[in-house]
């Protein structure tokens, strides 16, 4: 029976939403094996959380070496599991880390790699949206075991109750996977807001905010959305660069993207133009962002945004 | 797009924006070390795989201050994917006796961000990627970076040799000076072919993945645009409600 291996992502003892998404795609091809690589003693609660995704078996590797040596260590173990289990494919989430692990596993197993897929079919054809969403591409791996990284939120995770089997593997690393030593980690401060790339709604602010993100944040909160920013805003230090949307920032594809005081430069559009619905608020009627917008308001964001936020709040009351 | 390959013939072979940060960072590390020396002890070599036109991009890097360049140009490399590209680049790096390789984090067209990791894996060197800052200590042959990604900031270090990729927040790349541009004209660019490297299984014919089809996304339907007359916010929310987004 064919099986697909997925690599489980987690942070702060919580399995990432992407695990369910990857499992949902993997299940189209065959049974689903989830590879969980974590610190010694950490796996218990993580395995529990995997029971709400369509997963048939969990392969658990516990070792403190992952925290010390990072990507190279994770890649070596993943490649070894691939060689041993001969899955039909390996799916990994398209984070910076996920793509780098995938890259190293591809080299180790001499397998083709497709990154940033937004879909994966039962015949293992990957769909990608490239050049800032201007092209849709279907491709497949023609050599080795397909390794595909999938963008967060690209597909809806199937909610199920599963009772996967659990297999523990022992971890040993070659010296070349231990060349890099991680000496300290400062996790990104997570506010109460959803993760930018996972959010269904993103409200972004640009130079037009003039440094005042309070109305943007308040509007995002009223919608239960995440806050994004243009590079002009992150470069000015108005908002953390981890929130930058665009070519050199995050690529987001939410149900709703609201651009406030953002002109819509090509590099910004590259990160948001596949959003399902786009709304723009800008005082310049000629701003290129309006070419993309399903709904545009020509006006001052400091008037329009608070009014919209109040209207959303009023709707919630009624 | 032509036959599922990116048709780069129509675009200028400019230096990838993100690679300028890598060159700048290398210069910032090497320049103080060479300061006051009769003959520079530390040199920077640019390596690129691309058609002959890529020499223009290399010339820009040389005019920023790099010492020399190697271009791997071979018609059989057209259509190379990341695995093939990393194989070719690793082969060149192996023979060069380098301590550190600096890369941008991704190309501005294909955007995979995987070459630095692939290079580290192929070379068996340390991987220090997504650096927002780099500190090099030549005396102890050690390099330390702050890796900056969504996940947060990690401090990591390794001995030479290492592959370092830098993010665009790391520095402000310099503009080549007139002197730099003139000097670059005399700097050597060595051109190699696949045969020179002793490789055979690269290029489109032996690619690890294939594109079945590519279709242009239909242009977005023209939207509604309203002038704020004191009710812009309300109208916006009415639109969202209609779309069932609130
Ligand atoms: C290599 C490279 C990579 C880049 N990567 C990115 C990237 O990842 N993401 C990104 O965003 N940019 C990126 N850029 C920068 C990009 O080119 C633009 O400079 C940037 O997106 C502009 O940000 P902005 O729209 O906020 O600012 P501006 O272009 O200055 O636009 C501000 C807008 O706000 C409007 N405005 C002003 N005041 C108000 C008000 N009170 N109410 C309503 N509207 C108002 C103005 O009319 C204007 O349209 C990159 C550039 C380069 C060269
Ligand atoms: N004649 C060539 N010599 C060397 N590399 C090339 C050549 N043509 C294309 N490439 C490289 O192959 C990769 C794929 O390019 P393309 O074939 O244009 O999709 C890119 O990294 C190009 O720079």
Structure description:
The complex is a heterodimer of chains A (318) and B (246). Chain A has helices at residues 17-27, 43-49, 65-69, 71-85, 96-109, 214-223, 231-235, 266-269, 301-317; strands spanning 3-7, 10-11, 14-15, 31-38, 57-62, 89-93, 113-120, 126-130, 135-141, 147-150, 165-169, 181-187, 201-205, 226-229, 256-260, 277-282, 295-298. Chain A has 318 residues and is α/β, with parallel strands linked by helices. In chain A, the strands form 3 sheets. In chain A, strands 9-8-7-10-6-1-4-5-11 form a 9-stranded mixed beta sheet, with helices on both faces. A 5-stranded parallel beta sheet of chain A has the order 14-13-15-16-17. In chain A, a hairpin with a 4-residue loop joins strand 8 and strand 9. Chain A is elongated. The relative contact order of chain A is 0.11. The mean pLDDT of chain A is 95. With 246 residues, chain B is of the alpha/beta class. In chain B, 30% of the residues lie in helices and 26% in strands. Chain B has helices at 17-34, 55-64, 82-94, 115-123, 178-185, 194-197, 232-242; strands spanning 45-49, 68-72, 100-104, 126-137, 142-149, 152-159, 162-166, 189-192, 209-216, 224-227. The model of chain B is unreliable at 1-13 (pLDDT under 50). At the A-B interface, helix 4, helix 5, strand 7, strand 9 and strand 12 of A face helix 3, helix 4, strand 4, strand 6 and strand 9 of B. Bound molecules: flavin-adenine dinucleotide (FAD) and adenosine monophosphate. The site of adenosine monophosphate has 15 residues of chain B, from loops.
